[in-house]
Amino acid sequence: FLMVTPESPAVLALAGGVALNCRANSVVRDALGVELCVPSSAHDGGTALGAALEAAHLLGEPPCTHILSAGLGPALEEEACRRELTALGITPVDCGDPIEVAADWLAAGRILGWARGRMEFGPRALGHRSIVAHPGHAGIQERVNRIKDRQAWRPFAPSVLAEHPAE
């Protein structure tokens, strides 16, 4: 779906399983010289979103605003999490600043299960529900792949602060 308005440059919206290929998306974006919009629901179930946007466009509806977060699902409830952990024989511990503790643990080579905020819509973990590991540690990809029971060729999805892309 290609959307062009006088107020904005050309925006190509992609959906379907093929839209989950980040490398191919960057080639398409660069070859066409357009802004690319790939919603978090880019899996095959997300094609309904593209069809709805196309129908709205054909019916003369104004372009919709960008979805700024994939966190469209239910939020975690702390007490419910504590009950579930306790039921599994895990004693919840208040650790202070979770970001500071996570940074220390990642630096030490630990792999974390991260769950915070609302659940993401779509097949990708986008920071709300993720397995997080420091990719600079030797063997970490193999360890994550074992935890997730997935193929060795699966890539990581790196996250970097906007002010530190070169690092």
Please sum up the structure shown:
The protein has 167 residues and is an alpha+beta fold.
Q: Which oligomeric state applies? A: single chain
Report the end-to-end length measured between terminal Cα atoms: 35 Å
- How many helices? The count is 5
Task: State the secondary-structure class.
Answer: alpha+beta
Integer average pLDDT: 82
Helix content: 25-40%
Query: Care to count the β-strands?
Result: 5
Low-confidence stretches: none
The largest sheet is: 3 strands, mixed
**Which strand-content bin applies to the residues?**
5-15%
What best-fitting shape do the alpha-carbon axes yield? globular
Task: Give the neighbour order of strands across the main sheet.
Answer: 1-2-3
What is the ordering of alpha helices and beta strands?
EEHEHHHEEH
Explain what this protein looks like in three dimensions.
The protein is of the alpha+beta class and 167 residues long. It has five helices and five strands. The chain has helices at residues 22-32, 47-58, 78-87, 98-107, 140-148; strands at 2-5, 8-13, 35-37, 112-115, 129-132. The chain has a three-stranded mixed beta sheet with strand order 1-2-3. A two-stranded antiparallel ribbon has the order 4-5. The chain starts with a strand and ends in a 19-residue tail after the last helix.
Characteristic terms for this protein:
167 residues, alpha+beta, three-stranded mixed beta sheet, two-stranded antiparallel sheet, 5 helices, 5 strands
List the helices and strands and how they pair.
Blueprint: E1 2-5, E2 8-13, H1 22-32, E3 35-37, H2 47-58, H3 78-87, H4 98-107, E4 112-115, E5 129-132, H5 140-148
